[in-house]
Design a protein that fits this description.
Elements lengths: L2 H11 L2 E9 L5 E10 L6 E11 L2 H8 L9 H26 L8 E12 L1 H4 L7 E5 L2 H8 L3 E3 L2 H6 L8 H9 L6 E6 L2 E7 L9 E7 L2 H11 L8 H4 L5 H7 L20 H11 L6 H24 L6 E5 L6 H10 L4 E4 L10 H15 L18 E3 L3
Parallel strand pairs: 1-4, 4-6, 7-10, 10-11
Antiparallel strand pairs: 1-2, 2-3, 4-5, 6-12, 7-8, 8-9
Helix pairs in contact: 3-5, 7-14, 8-12, 10-11, 10-12, 12-13
The structure holds adenosine-5'-triphosphate and ligand AH0.
Length: about 400
Amino acid sequence: MNKYVEKLYAIAGKETRLIIGLMSGTSLDGLDVALCRITGYGKETALELLQFDTTPYTDEFRNRIREVFAKREVDQQLLTGLHAVVGRTHGGLVNEMLAAWGVPNHEVDLLASHGQTVYHAPQSLTGNLEYPNSTLQIGDGDHVAVTTGIITVSDFRQKHVAAGGEGAPLAAYGDHLLFTDGLETRILLNIGGIANFTCLPAGNIGMPCFATDVGPGNTLMDQYMQAVMGQAMDKDAAIASAGVVNRPLLDTLLSHDFFALPFPKTTGPELFNLQYLADAQHKAGTVGLSKHDVMATLCAFSASAIVQAVNRVMEPHRQVKVYISGGGLHNPLLVRFIKEGLPGVSVLSFDELGLVPDAKEAALFALLANETVAGDAIHVNGIMNSPAVCMGKISFPE
Ligand SMILES: Nc1ncnc2c1ncn2[C@@H]1O[C@H](COP(=O)(O)OP(=O)(O)OP(=O)(O)O)[C@@H](O)[C@H]1O
Ligand SMILES: CC(=O)N[C@H]1[C@@H]2OC[C@@H](O2)[C@@H](O)[C@@H]1O[C@H](C)C(=O)O
């Protein structure tokens, strides 16, 4: 028997596994690395976050990814090269992180690698029914496995698409297994580049669990700051806080058909980009708006899309608690707008549920790998319009 098949079999039979989850999202800010101790599987899963850190990308690496990111036309030679380079870079960053934490690579059972989404193409975006929903993540798992010496599970989204989903949001599976509560209906809102949430109804309210993207999180604000202000982000909303929300522009930004689509749905910077903003400014007659007012309006746009989506969930059930994770939690104006838009609703940090908010997505990929190796598709049954599947491809280091 191949020694890694034997090793994998042994790992699958363990009571407790040490699994690293990696996430590099649509913000392109860096690689999130979460070292998790996972006990059990399915509804009996317990996840303990042992270490977490984000390694910021260098400008050079980020710019190389940007060359192919969310673009319809790209240099195929660059894209092909990046598939390997992203895998090797992520593997190298894991090696550095493990060394800093004093954890030998051979003690880690599995590595769960999301890779880097470079294009997300649900039919709702393309309008082309001859092609299924499709999505592409680069950073090949073989490169990660060979670089780290750790058995790697990667490319999670393809199975979701193959089984009828849109390839996202996958957080639903971990949210469902770890955070469902018998008494409290919860909305787990992650504000990354794109904002998405998982709705976890309390046991007896007869509503399905589902996860959906809701619109831009930080991506439009980041893109504007980078293109117009030469800064990576609007740190602590310093710029947006000095501006005034422009109502005609906000209404135009919110008028896209995407927002009227039923849940669940997915999106990305393929739609929410600076062209989207330019078109809206043109339509609303606000081309000359000050930079501060544009930023204030973009912040209100992300918040309003979230508020509208939460309100839609709440129509039949008034009692929900919203728990926020992701980088948007650090934007005080965005959080204020969301709270003001949801009077009477408890809007809390994800900390309250016992997991570091910035680590949530990376940790949930570790859980997905755990389920693929030790679990069963049946455990993730019951998520609306999300197939019951175990996801990811397995790469051996040799
Ligand atoms: N102090 C801060 N002030 C304002 N915004 C912040 C702050 N810290 C982080 N952010 C925002 O959070 C973003 C990073 O969020 P996060 O790491 O959750 O995104 P991601 O994982 O790449 O996205 P996705 O969930 O879409 O895959 C930054 O690009 C920035 O816009
Ligand atoms: C295609 C893709 O990479 N989608 C991401 C993106 O970033 C946020 C949102 O859009 C979410 O749907 C998804 O990531 C998270 C981790 C998910 O699948 O749950």
